[in-house]
Amino acid sequence: MQNNRVLITGGAGFIGSELVRQLVAQETQQVIVVDNLVNGKRENLKDISSDKLELIVADIRDSDRMADLMSGVDIVFHLACLGVRHSIHSPDENHQVNATATLQLLRSAKAVGVSRFVYVSSSEVYGTARWVPMSEEHPTFPMTVYGASKLAGECYTRAFYETYGYPTVVVRPFNAYGPRCHHEGDSGEVIPKFLLRSMAGKPMVIFGDGTQTRDFTYVSDTAKGIIAAGCTDSAVGQTINLGSGFEIAVNDLAKEIASIVDRADTSVIHDEPRPGDVLRLYAELTKAQQLLGFKPQVTLREGLIKLRDWYVSSGKSPETLLKDEFVRNWDITKVN
């Protein structure tokens, strides 16, 4: 990546900031982060000291601005999006950002001569598994507007390859977690919420019966796969899963987290199921292994311990961090 100018949309977010970290460590020629800081945070990049890194606060829906920013860029990694819970209370905006803006970015990237466009999709495009493990040929039946909008973005990305021969790659990360993952607002995810609640001596809240499964992938592994997709020629035109190749039920995840924080007495509360909740996800990784040399390095237990230790070293108590948590976070009313 040393000779490339790279632009990352959503680069101040959770996965995006890890991508930045790894690209800077690889001495990428220039890393341009575009983020409107709705979900991303400046503090996610504050520990990265490099004169090759630039943060631009902008909205990816501003087509003219994005075209200017992509001029002279070699690779675009497109991660900016609004999430699952957001799509439940604000479906129109979710589609505009995740789908319509992706089409606009593809048009602009092609027009200004960006050499490769990597679209970071989501395992949510699959919906609930019909069979496991789930290969890229598994049917796509998204259960939320988020999943549908990400699938639309995928289709636009593949269409630019098929119609124009434009070099694009689609990657489908399964559930990433790790330092800087979201516990707050409508972006809050199960692992950070469980960890912080258990550390604070509060009950972990499971929506539904807890038998639903996920393929949790440590964020450094996810980012390595995304970077590989950006610099591997055989990945062009492909759609590729990025996961751990391991599934765990949410009930068992709660037990594992209670063990890791040494709070076996942590209670669990079962609440009503979340609307559109996917019941099973479990990635098949053969394609990622063959095309990208992708091999996850961090086990779930190792990753949970790393995240626990990161929270401990953050200087903020679990109780303080939980002030930003909304338990039923799809019920958040959009203010503006």
Automatic annotation (TrEMBL):
InterPro entries: NAD(P)-bd_dom (IPR016040), NAD(P)-bd_dom_sf (IPR036291). Pfam families: GDP_Man_Dehyd. It comes from the Bacteria. Residues 7-304 form the NAD(P)-binding domain. PANTHER family: DTDP-D-GLUCOSE 4,6-DEHYDRATASE-RELATED. This is GDP-mannose 4,6-dehydratase.
